[in-house]
Amino acid sequence: MALSDPHPWWRDAVIYQVYPRSFADADGDGVGDLAGIRAHLGHLSALGVDAIWMSPWYPSPMADAGYDVSDFRDIDPVFGTLAEAEALIEEAHAAGIRMIVDIVPNHLSSEHPWFKAALASPDAPERDYFWFRPGRGENGDEMPTDWRGEFGGTTWTRTPDGSWYLHLFAPEQVDLNWDHPVVRAEFESILRFWFDRGVDGIRIDSAALLLKDTALPEVVEGEPHPFHDLDGVHEIYRSWRRVADEYGGDRALIGEVWMPEVDRFANYLRPDELHAAFNFDFLGCAWDPRLMRECVDRTLAAHAAIGAPATWVLSNHDVTRHVTRYGRSDTTFSFDNNLDGTPVDLELGTRRARAAALLSLSLPGATYIYQGEELGLWENENIPVSSYQDPMWERRGHSRDGCRVPLPWTGDEAPFGFTTATATPWLPQPAEWKDRTAQAQTGDPNSMLELYRSAIALRRVEPGLHANDMAWLDVSASVVAYTRGSGFACVVNMSDAPIDLPDHQSTLLASGTLDGDRLPPDTAVWLRLH
């Protein structure tokens, strides 16, 4: 892919999420780093991805795995140096891969210089950059509100001077006051810092949470929410869009927008705001043909209304890996159905995950792949509680660590080439992953890795997958089937019995072995039509 391509790359790109702690460790400390990523760029190039989304790599006390940032203009020493980051951007571009960095605008680390200055003196100007408030009650001993945190638990922490500060996540993640012009100017400067270093896009964490109702009302069902999706947040992203457009028009802003109302979600994608946003409706959709069709229709209709591209996401660093999810009786995702002891059929989950790969890679729009998805990795639900590092565990009883386990690259036993043979990965890897290493799967036509490689390669050259139109095929109520363009079809059998394939000229790719012209259960196929 030529990086000067005039076609907006973000509209139909295949974007790979790198979680740097768990991708590859070159220095033997058990934690992934930039040198490890650079050493494995060949894997991503062979996979065929168009862009890398890099989860936070900034200096951080790691209270929330790097989402508590103390400096947005540098790299945490555990990962490497700013010079190495700049080299990685250049090397990725040389391989035809664009780079997206993760910006976390809702909060800063409690170790950030601004917050340290705010704590040092009640008269410090930095106090106004955050949400300091007096407590309720006769002595101010009660929290200013009863808001519940995004991780569960309380949202206010008292300081030694008796005031309280707001944190919608962990106490070490201090919410910023986005009504302050200094905060807005600082983040526009941060965007320019990374755009000047050649990054092609910004992924915006918790994009809908930035503004808060200054009256601090309680959350009341049926009334406007005090900190979710306030209308004024759109002016922030209009200003960010103006910054991005200064750099030639091909820099992308991609929002993490958890929004159940489709029309409110679509507001973030208006022509002068974000370029794209994650589709959590699809990620959480059950393995059910009717619900899946409804989800796709809902997604495409919302995006078509504003001319924005849809996105298709199966897993990420916050959710249960979909091999595990699809192997349960309840195939949806929520933070309440993880680690609940529900049996998992990994064979079934893998079969469905293979089919889901062909589904997500053939729908109109951009596709996101979370690292390890291409290896068919499942959630490690056997991590000892003593090894949990996710702050959500203590506050909500849900750990995201199981989807963040380091990748297996080579060999028959842990650490599977992730780090040096004598080092211990920061989270334990299942011994059963010996069959899921990149080395074991390379060249095996039946492996998940080769399925992804083949699908992404076909996606590049198949004319139908570059067409804007999509139409449903009437095959069966238990099937998700559609055409793209005039000559391509995808058929996904979500039933428990084989079905007859529609009339076609040839088979391009299948997620499992076909029985003549019959498609087995939980299997997908790409077809060339007559």
The number of domains: 3
Assigned CATH class of the largest domain: Alpha Beta
The general outline is globular
Find the CATH topology of the largest domain.
TIM Barrel
Q: Detail the poorly predicted runs.
A: 1-5
What is the rounded distance between the termini?
Answer: 30 Å
Number of helices: 14
CATH architecture of the largest domain: Alpha-Beta Barrel
Percentage beta strand: 5-15%
Main sheet overview: 8 strands, parallel
Tell me the name of the CATH homologous superfamily of the largest domain: Glycosidases
Instruction: Give the overall pLDDT as a whole number.
Output: 95
Strand order of the largest sheet: 11-10-9-3-2-1-13-12
User: Helix fraction?
Assistant: 10-25%
* Rg: 23 Å
Structural class: alpha/beta
